C-alpha cells in the first residue's frame, strides 16, 4: 500500500536532484559561491541585504569578471560583455528578471516587456517624448522646479549664525522631492507638490521603501509574479483609488492621463502628449506614467545627493567648483536665475564632478539580467573562454564596472573629479581617458535597452548642482 507513494516520492526527489545536478553542471565553467550553484537563496539573501552592489563586486573580484550567483544566473562587471548583450543587433534578449519591473496591476510598461518586438515598438513610440524632442517646455519646467528647491532651502534650512540659528537639511529627502516634482511636471504638466509641502504628501516615498524588497523577491523568483493574478492578492495591491502611498500616485497619474481624453481634453506639449501622438492607448499611458515616476525620480535623486554629498564634504573640491562658478557668473557665462543646460556643459569641473558622482555611486544596481540566446554563448573570463547555455541570465554589476581599477585607476574607490581632467596629453593618458569615457555611459545602460531619460537626468544634474553652488557662492559673497 505504501509502495506506490514511496516509489513516486523517491522518483520525484531523484528527478529533482538530477535536474539540480544538470543545472549545476551547465555553468560549471564559471566560478561563484558554492551554494549559489544549487539554490537561488544565496541571491535572494544578497538582494535583501541591501548591499547587492558590494556583494556582487566581491563575487567578481574573487571568481572573475563573469561569475555564477544562482543556478541559471551569472553576474558580470565586464564592459565588453555588457555592450555585447545590449547592442542593437545582439541576439541576447531581456531575461525573465524584467517581469519584476511591472508597476501597474493591469498594464505593462516599456521597462518590463520581455517580448522584443513589443519593446522595440514601444521604445520607438516613446523615445521622442522622453528625450525632450517633442517636449518644448522641458528646460523651463526644470528651471521652475530648481527655483522651488532653492526657495525651500533658503526658507527652511538657511543658517543664520548671527541669530544663533543653525539648521540640518536632509539632503536625501530634498533631492527626492525635487526629482519627483520634476518628473511629474515634465511628464504630465503638474508637479506633485513635494517641494512646496516640504513633505511626502502622499506617503509615496515611505510606501516605495516597503515595496522595493518585493522587486528583489520577484527578480530572483520570477515565477512568483504569477501570484499577483490571484484575485485576493491583486485586490491587496496598491490601486488608483487609494488615499495614500503608491496607489495615490497611481490615482494622480490616472487623473492626469484621463484629462487628455474626451471633449475637454487638456493639450500640453509634454511627454504625455508625445506618447498620445505616437499612439499609446489610455491603459498603456497609465503603465508608462507609473514607470516615468519610478524610473525617473529615485535614480536621479540618488546621483544628485551622492554628488552633492561628496562635493560638500571635500573642501578642495568644493572650493574649485565654487571658483569655476564665480568666474563663470562674473564673465556672464551663466544665465540667471537658472543656468542653461548648454552653459553647464561648458564648465569642465562641474562635468567632471557629475561624471565622478555617477561613477562612484551608480544609481541603478538592480540586476537588469539579459538572456543568452539559442545556441548558447562563449564568454571570455580573464582570457579563458567559458560556455553559457541558452536560457542563462546574465546580470550586470554596475558598481564593479564603475570601480574597475584597470579602467579608472588604482584609486577608483575614491571620489576624485580630477581623474576626468587629464593634465598631460600623452598617448597613454589619451588611451586611458578614452576607456573611461567609453565605460562611464554604461551607468545609463546601453544600446537598445539604454536609458530613455538620460537627457532629462543630465539636465537636472547640470542645473541643480550648479545652482546650489551658485547660491552658496552668492551667500559667501554676501557674508564677505
Ligand atoms: C541618473 C539618472 C538615471 C540613471 C543612472 C538611469 C539608468 C538607467 C538604466 C541603467 C536603465 C536600464 C537599462 C537596461 O535595462 O539595460 C534605464 C532605463 C530606463 N530609464 Fe533611466 N536612468 C536615470 C534617469 C532616468 C529618468 C530621469 C527617466 C525618465 C525621464 C528615465 C527613464 C528610463 C526609461 C523609460 C527606461 C527604460 C528604457 C527601455 O526599456 O528601453 N531614466 N535607466
Helices, strands, pairings?
Blueprint: H1 3-26, H2 41-48, H3 52-63, E1 66-70, E2 73-76, H4 79-86, E3 93-94, H5 116-131, H6 138-157, H7 171-188, H8 194-197, H9 204-220, H10 231-236, H11 245-258, H12 271-277, H13 282-312, H14 315-330, H15 341-344, H16 348-360, E4 370-371, E5 377-381, E6 384-388, E7 393-396, H17 398-402, H18 405-408, H19 427-439, H20 454-479
Parallel strand pairs: 2-7
Antiparallel strand pairs: 1-2, 3-4, 4-7, 5-6
Helix pairs in contact: 2-9, 5-12, 6-7, 6-20, 7-13, 9-11, 11-13, 13-16, 13-20, 14-20
The chain binds protoporphyrin IX containing FE.
Explained architecture:
The protein is mostly helical. It is globular and about 90 Å long. Strands 1-2-7-4-3 form a five-stranded mixed β-sheet, with helices on both faces. A two-stranded antiparallel sheet has the order 5-6. It has one domain: Orthogonal Bundle (Cytochrome p450). Helix 2 packs antiparallel against helix 9 and helix 14 crosses helix 20. A hairpin with a 2-residue loop joins strand 5 and strand 6. Helix content is 55%, strand content 6%. It is built from 20 helices and seven strands. The protein binds protoporphyrin IX containing FE. Protoporphyrin IX containing FE binds next to helix 5, helix 13 and helix 20.
Amino acid at each position: 500500500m505504501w509502495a506506490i507513494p514511496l516509489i513516486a516520492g523517491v522518483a520525484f526527489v531523484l528527478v529533482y536532484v538530477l535536474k539540480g545536478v544538470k543545472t549545476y553542471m551547465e555553468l560549471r565553467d564559471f566560478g561563484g559561491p558554492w551554494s549559489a550553484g544549487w539554490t537561488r537563496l544565496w541571491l535572494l539573501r544578497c538582494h535583501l541585504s541591501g548591499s547587492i552592489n558590494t556583494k556582487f563586486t566581491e563575487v567578481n573580484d574573487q571568481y572573475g569578471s563573469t561569475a555564477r550567483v544562482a543556478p541559471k544566473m551569472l553576474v558580470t562587471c565586464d564592459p565588453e560583455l555588457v555592450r555585447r548583450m545590449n547592442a542593437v543587433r545582439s541576439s541576447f534578449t531581456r531575461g525573465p528578471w524584467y517581469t519584476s519591473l511591472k508597476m501597474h496591476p493591469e498594464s505593462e510598461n516599456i521597462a518590463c516587456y520581455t517580448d522584443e518586438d513589443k519593446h522595440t515598438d514601444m521604445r520607438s513610440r516613446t523615445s521622442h517624448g522622453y528625450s525632450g524632442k517633442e517636449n518644448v517646455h522641458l528646460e523651463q519646467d526644470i528651471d521652475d522646479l530648481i527655483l522651488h528647491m532653492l526657495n525651500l532651502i533658503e526658507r527652511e534650512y538657511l543658517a543664520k549664525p548671527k541669530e544663533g540659528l543653525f539648521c540640518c537639511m536632509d539632503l536625501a529627502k530634498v533631492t527626492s522631492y525635487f526629482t519627483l516634482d520634476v518628473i511629474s511636471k515634465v511628464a504630465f504638466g503638474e508637479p506633485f507638490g513635494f517641494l512646496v509641502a516640504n513633505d511626502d504628501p502622499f506617503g509615496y516615498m515611505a510606501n516605495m521603501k516597503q515595496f522595493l524588497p518585493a522587486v528583489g523577491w520577484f527578480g530572483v523568483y520570477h515565477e512568483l509574479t504569477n501570484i499577483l493574478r490571484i484575485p485576493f492578492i491583486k485586490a491587496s495591491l496598491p490601486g488608483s483609488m487609494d488615499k495614500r502611498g503608491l496607489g495615490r500616485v497611481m490615482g494622480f497619474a490616472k487623473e492626469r492621463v484621463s484629462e487628455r481624453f474626451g471633449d475637454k481634453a487638456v493639450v500640453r506639449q509634454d511627454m504625455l502628449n508625445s506618447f498620445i501622438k505616437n499612439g499609446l492607448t489610455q491603459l498603456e499611458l497609465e503603465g508608462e506614467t507609473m514607470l516615468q515616476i519610478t524610473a525617473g525620480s529615485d535614480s536621479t535623486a540618488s546621483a544628485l545627493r551622492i554628488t552633492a554629498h561628496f562635493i560638500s564634504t571635500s573642501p578642495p573640491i568644493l572650493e574649485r567648483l565654487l571658483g569655476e562658478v564665480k568666474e563663470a557668473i562674473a564673465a556672464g557665462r551663466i544665465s540667471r536665475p537658472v543656468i542653461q543646460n548648454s552653459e553647464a556643459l561648458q564648465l569642465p569641473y562641474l562635468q567632471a564632478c557629475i561624471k565622478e558622482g555617477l561613477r562612484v555611486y551608480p544609481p541603478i544596481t538592480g540586476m537588469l539580467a539579459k538572456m543568452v540566446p539559442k545556441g548558447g554563448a562563449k564568454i571570455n573570463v580573464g582570457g579563458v573562454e567559458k560556455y553559457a547555455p541558452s536560457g542563462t541570465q546574465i546580470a550586470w554589476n554596475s558598481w564593479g564596472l564603475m570601480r574597475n581599477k584597470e579602467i579608472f585607476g588604482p584609486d577608483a574607490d575614491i571620489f576624485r573629479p580630477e581623474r576626468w581632467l587629464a593634465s598631460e596629453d600623452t598617448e597613454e593618458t589619451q588611451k586611458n581617458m578614452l576607456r573611461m569615457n567609453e565605460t562611464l555611459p554604461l551607468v545609463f545602460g546601453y544600446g537598445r535597452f539604454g536609458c530613455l531619460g538620460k537627457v532629462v537626468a543630465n539636465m537636472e544634474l547640470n542645473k541643480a548642482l550648479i545652482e546650489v553652488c551658485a547660491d552658496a557662492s552668492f551667500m559667501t559673497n554676501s557674508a564677505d
